[in-house]
Records
---
Amino acid sequence: MTELFGDDLLARPRREVAPGAVHVPGWLTLEQQAWIVERFREWAAGPVPARAARIGGHPMSVRTVCLGWHWQPYRYTREATDVNGARVLPLPEWLVRLGRKAVAEAYDGAAAAGYVPDAALANHYGTIGDGTMAKMGMHQDKDEISREPVVSLSIGDTCLFRFGNTETRTRPYTDVELRSGDLFVFGGPSRLAYHGVPKVFPGTAPEGCGLEGRGRINITLRATGLDAPEAGEDAP
Ligand SMILES: O=C(O)CCC(=O)C(=O)O
Ligand SMILES: [Fe+2]
């Protein structure tokens, strides 16, 4: 009941975690979250199924499905050459608009006006083989040529999100709890900051978010800075 009226947000004010890195708790409504979870299910069904990307021969514990451009360590391609060779789905217009609204919310309208993300990475953190939850090690998002901000949306179980600095994987960093519906935007001086997800807390998804008992979804929107093909032209 208290969550129904957003009372939890009193204790979780929006916060600039580092210069250019803004956490906006409770940005998506439960209805929006549940709708996005349904879309995620559609994306994960193909043409390129959600898969664990391999880094240095080892599969990541999260499963990822990409839109617009397919990400594989450490590049973007239109076809998922490390999965089944199929072309990824286009980035839907509603996600582009949502990304722009997110940047307006985190920064201002001027920053948002020119923001045109062209790729989304949708990660699912589920239970892995040993019964624990998937996680993600400290890394930089640096396979994009553009340095436009990254927009991150979280749905489902709460996680511990570690947001660090641009120099090292280690301290100083700030630990932030990302809950279902939270927005996190990092750009400007924080665009290349190391970050990761050391822990997901199972069973913490709010009722009605569409993912109860099934882990966590995180969607990041990015501007790759790669060439947009002309309409009808084959992508490189
Ligand atoms: O799951 C998250 O909150 C972060 C995901 C992330 O860092 C990434 O996909 O590069
Ligand atoms: Fe990342």
---
Amino acid sequence: MTDFAHAVRDILQAGQRMDSRGWVPATAGNISRRLEDGAIAITRSGGHKGFLQADGVITVDMQGRPLRQQDVPSAETLLHCQIYRNDPTAGAVLHGHSVAATVLSMLSADPALVLSDYEVLKVFEGQTTHKTSVSVPVFENDQDIARLAGVVEPFFGRMSAGYIIRGHGVYVWGKNMTTALARLEGLEFLLACELERRKLAR
Ligand SMILES: CSC[C@@H](O)[C@@H](O)C(=O)COP(=O)(O)O
Ligand SMILES: [Zn+2]
């Protein structure tokens, strides 16, 4: 199997998994994988990520330009490229729109969501105990993705659990698709726990 075919398989499987968990409603979400030659395999804009076919995955360069001019990559391609540029270990990037991420990030105007004392925090890089707090930055949503990327840029190097865009969704990455999916699943579990706790505390 070629590197690109392998990446397509990873992306299709990730789309199905995210859809099965309700994290990519309608045409929401986007998925990518770094290729050995330095290009990025990424979902086309506007497709349902649960029903992706091989032709729903295209290639872009590190600046987000499609290698075939006629292809239209994800509207959020620049956020993927930014992650690959800033983290040379990143091999896969996932973006989803869960109910928990959407609602929790709209409950307050806080610039971060702090997750504390959960066993599952150990899914994130460098965490070895539940006796810890992980801060997940929350950025204001913006339809101007280049401008949004500019706001995210200074936070690289201190985002072990990814980040949230307010009222929109999460971005998570890992060295490969398996790790990225585990982080996404861990983060979404924690966000669901937080949402549940806040509802019960009312
Ligand atoms: C269903 S609206 C969601 C989009 O606006 C966007 O946020 C998104 O996640 C998917 O965009 P896409 O261009 O398909 O990658
Ligand atoms: Zn989105």
---
Amino acid sequence: MKEVVKIVTRKSQLAMWQTNYIEDLLNEAGFETEIIKLDTIGDKILDVAINKIGSKGVFTEELEAALYAGEAHIAVHSAKDMPSSLPDGLELIAFTKREKMHDVLVSDKDIDLTGKLTIGTSSTRRVAMHKRFNPHFNIVDMRGNLQTRIGKMRDGHCDALHLAFAGVHRMGYEDLIKHHFDLSVFTPAVGQGSIAIEASTSLNPELKQKIIEAVNDTDTHACLAAERAFLKKLEGGCSVPVFGLASQNGDQISLRGGIVSLDGQTMIDDEVTGSMSESRELGEKLGDMLISRGGKELLNEIKRGL
Ligand SMILES: NCc1[nH]cc(CCC(=O)O)c1CC(=O)O
């Protein structure tokens, strides 16, 4: 008899794509899989901006309850949606090989970036970056899953949606991409493009090891360790305008990251390079560098303004 891995996930189409991707990896490794689908607060409350809902784990808490209760062995998340600190007794055990990390503009129309475009997004990072780099854009809040947002765009709420390439690609909307943002200018949120596996620290160690072997990409894991350590130093979640992206070259990791004020006026950013075996320390180092340049004060000011 094959061993069964019980997987808990959100119900959205993107979450299901990502869960099916994990299922395939586990099935190839000889496991059977069972899916439990749950709604999170982030899925239920759609008329409030994410940073106003208040809870840090808006897309994670209900899934974590299933892990605590032992109803599921693992939860599947977009790595980007994971707070930098997890609740006691839970850990991220694996990260999948990353999809392309950059952001894109999606639209039915031809897009002229020099024009007065109305852009839909619910990310404070994207709003702040546009205020800095594209102050002529009009930004409107756009919540909901990808399908809902595209529907709202087609109803005339905005000219284009600002989204992660990864989600657009996974949902098959690539032909609507009208612009690819440059990674070095429009640096993504920490974790963008990777799928994270969360488990209880009391998960059977042998099962945990087998799941890691089936799912984890070592290079991505090292990059995400650096990015998440950086975010943790800044005590940031996915709702603050912090960006961070690590890339790996041989046994070296380079990490670029920063904070941008909500009005786009102030940006503190820097880059560090170091050994892949010390990726977490590298992230902490970059965090400390930004803090010494006034990063904490900037973040406090941002949090007051949210
Ligand atoms: N914030 C929601 C979210 N979480 C993960 C993705 C896309 C997939 C990914 O980045 O891994 C998205 C949508 C988006 O930002 O466009």
